Every structure is written in structure tokens, then in C-alpha cells.
Amino acid sequence: AHSHSFWFPPVPGPHAHRFLCTPLAAACPSGAEQGDAAAGEREELLLLQSTAEQLRQTALQQEARIRADQDTIRELTGKLGRCESGLPRGLQDAGPRRDAMADGPWDSPALILELEDAVRALRDRLDRIEQELPTRVNFSAAPAPAPAVPTALHSKMDELEGQLLAKVLALEKERVALSHSSHRQRQEVEKELDALQDRVAELEHGSSAYSPPDAFKISIPIRNNYMYARVRKALPELYAFTVCMWLRSRSGGSGQGTPFSYSVPGQANEIVLLEAGHDPMELLINDKVAQLPLSLKDDGWHHICIAWTTRDGLWSAYQDGELQGSGENLAAWHPIKPHGILILGQEQDTLGGRFDATQAFVGDIAQFNLWDHALTPAQVLGIANCTGPLLGNVLPWEDKLVEAFGGAKKATFDVCKGRAKA
Q1: Which of 17, 19, 64, 229 is a good FRET partner for 421, with 20 to 30 A between their CA atoms?
Q2: How many other β-carbons are positioned within 10 Å of the β-carbon of residue 216?
Q3: Closest CA to 418 of 364, 370, 344
Q4: Is residue 107's pLDDT more than 60?
């Protein structure tokens, strides 16, 4: 409760009784009645003032709840502030201010009515705010100013996310294009290097230089685990093959070793031709073994052809143009896997390495060719007799496709002219 001092104008004068009598009084009351009426009016004024203060506190609490609900409905807080600032002047002056009470008579019936009207207006505005609040918070309702902020924010985030995704896709396409371009450039560089190597060999050896594709041999003079040649071409998946080569062993009858081996990831013995010690020559396909009726222990040149097909695992072995034997069920229905490593002169225990000197080849290899089908007996005989030269359609014997390592050497040699020589 607040203590107030009231000023009463002097009794004389025609206007004094207007402030001392209520509008409904028929005549001016006595002094005691005037005191009771003034006390009742003050109590009613204090009650209205307390009610206004409670409403003000309610408005402040409502404002706090609105702020806590969501930042996007700040407009309601501003509206509440505008409601408070828009009160009639009489209510603003009716606050608990001591100086304002000295400016005019608080016991005026007109001021009391004005306070009542202001309180009702404030109550009506608060009711409308409470009714509007659920619809403004509900984002599924009709479009309203409050949810415009998150809607715009989400739209902006979606737009930025789309731009980022587009940029990532563009960079990925650019990376793929650069990779393809780099691959093509690498192939072109390899072709140029091959041409330069051929030119250098021609200039170094003059007219005696061997000319691709077939006038050379690979020589491995001693048995070890580091001399070999590698074929620089990946094989495709094969359902049949024929492999032919000229061989001259210098093992002294102790076994030819491994003329060639082909390994793929997960299988070191995908295709292996091997003769160890006094054992017969063997053909391994996917670790399955067939013994071949071939004999190469006289240190002379011999032409060898081996044909195989995945259908029933059929195989045939030729020596010097003649069929020496055939069989079946050698890795039947197993296709030869692609993208492996083909080594001449060593047996691979792992992909491309871990050679064993006891299984190494010693001697010369020439005209190693590979086809993706079985050659006819007439074709095999023509190659062996040097009457029908034929290059492999999968792997031809070309200088640029064969690289020597560890001391193995390439030498000028035409097998059909030089096979009778020592």
C-alpha cells in the first residue's frame, strides 16, 4: 500500500463542490460523509492500482515465456511492449509515482472511470495475445510473420547444401576427367619411350640390331633367383589358350626349371610350366597338375606348344610340331583370371616375386606367343617348321613387351635361322 497526500481546494467558490461530491449525490454530504467517501475512493483506487500492477506482472511473465518458447517469435515480445506503451495517458500517470500524485486530484470520478477503462483494455489485449500465441507457435498453421524467420533460414540452408553438393559433384567429375587424361598421357609417353628405345637400339647396333617383333631371345646363363624377364602386358580373362615358345635348356639334364609362370591376386599358380629335377614336365592351372610327355634335356632348341580349354579341362601338348599327348579334367570350367603377372624364367610363390633358385630356368627363350583359343595341329606344325609364322593375338613376341631383369639379357636372334647353332 502506498501513502498519499491529497490537496483539497478551498471551500469558497462555485467550483469547489465539484471535486468533493460524487456525480450521483443529490446534495453535498457532510464532512464525515465526505471523509468516508474519500476513504472508499482511495481504497478502490488502490485496488485498481494493485490490479493494474498484477496485470503488468502477468504481462512480463507472458513476455518471458514467449522469449523462452522460440527466438523466432520475438515479434510478439515487441507487440507486448507496444501494448504497454499504448495505454491511455491517465493509466501511465496512475503508476506508483509520488510526484504524479501531486499534479492532480486522485479522487476524481472521471480519473477512476478512465483507470477502469484502461485496465479493461489491458486485460482485453492480454487475452488476445494469449489466444494468438498457439497459432503463431504452430508452424503448420497459415503463414504468419513469426515462422518466416526459420522458413527463410531453412531455405537458405537447403540452398547452400545444394550448392555444396553441386560443387562436390563437379570436383569429382573433374578428378575423373583428370585421371582419364593422365592415363592417356601415360600411355602416350610409354609409346614414345618404346619408339625411342627401338631407335636407340638400332643406332647402337647398326644393321646387326634385331628388329621387332621376333628377332631376339632372352638368355638366362645361370640358375639363380634374380634373373628373369617380365611381360609388360596384362592378360584378359581366358576360357581357352594356346602358348607356344622356342626353348633351349642349359641345365645339363638336371631339369629345365620354369620356362614361364603366370600369377594373379590370390593364386600364385594360375598357369605354370615346370620341370623340376628328374620329374616329368608339368602344367599347373589353378594349382591343378597335368604331367606332359615332353623331353627337352638334350640342350638343343625345341618348339613347344600347349593348348587348353576350360570346357572339360581338355589339354594338348606339342613338341617340334608333333602332338605328344593330351588329357582332360585339368581345372575344368575354371576361367583364367585377368590382370596377373607373367614371368619368363622363374616360378612365382607370390604375385610377381619370391622366386626359388631350384625352380629357375637356365637357357634361352624365344618366340613366346599366346592366343585365346586352341591352335589347329596344322598351325602348330607351320610355326615349328618356320613355314607359317604366327604371332599371338593376346600376347605377341615383341621387343617392347618384354623386359629383362637381374642380368638376363636380350640378344639378337632369329630362331628359324639360328636354332641349329650351338
Answers
A1: 229
A2: 24
A3: 364
A4: no
Quote the pTM value.
0.51
> How far are the Cα atoms of 38, 42, 292, 373 from residue 94, in angstroms, in the given order?
17, 13, 120, 110
Phi and psi at residue 318, to the nearest 5°: -115, 145
Cβ pair 341, 348 in contact under 8 A: yes
CA 346/CA 226 separation, integer angstroms: 8
Residue type, 19: F
Measured from the Cβ of residue 339, the count of other Cβ atoms closer than 10 Å reads 10
Phi, psi (rounded to 5 degrees) for 277: 60, -130
* Lookup: cell for 371: 592366343
Q: With bands split at pLDDT 50, 70 and 90, how would you rate the model's confidence at 225?
A: very high
Top-level class of domain 216-420 = mainly beta
CA distances for 79 relative to 86, 95, 136, angstroms: 10, 21, 13
Q: What is the DSSP letter of 307?
A: E
**170-219 pLDDT per residue, tens:** 888 888 888 777 777 877 777 777 667 666 655 555 444 444 456 899 99
Query: 131 φ, ψ to 5°?
Result: -70, -35
What is the distance between the alpha carbons of residues 192 and 115, in angstroms, rounded to a whole number? 102
User: What are the Cα distances from residue 208, in Å, to 194, 216, 405, 419?
Assistant: 19, 11, 23, 18
Q: Order the strands of the 402-405 sheet from edge to edge.
A: 288-292, 281-285, 267-275, 257-264, 341-344, 228-231, 402-405
Among 221, 168, 171, smallest CA distance to 409 is for 221
The three cell numbers locating residue 318:
606339342
Taking the alpha carbons at both ends of the chain, their separation in whole angstroms is 133
Domain ranges within the chain, ordered by starting residue: 216-420
- Is the distance from CB of 296 to CB of 256 less than 8 angstroms? yes
Contact (Cβ atoms closer than 8 angstroms) between residue 308 and residue 315: yes
What CA–CA distance (Å, rounded) separates 372 from 242?
A: 7
Determine contact, residues 260/343, Cβ cutoff 8 Å.
yes
Closest CA to 2 of 66, 57, 49: 49
Report the distance separating Cα 342 and Cα 359, nearest Å: 16
Dist. CA 240–CA 50, nearest whole Å: 104
- Looking at the DSSP bridge assignments, the partners of residue 80 are none
Q: Rounded distance, CA 208 to CA 197, Å?
A: 16
3-state secondary structure (DSSP) of residue 173: helix
Which residues pair with residue 35 across a beta bridge? none
42/106 Cα distance (integer angstroms) = 8
Between CA 388 and CA 380 the distance in angstroms is 9
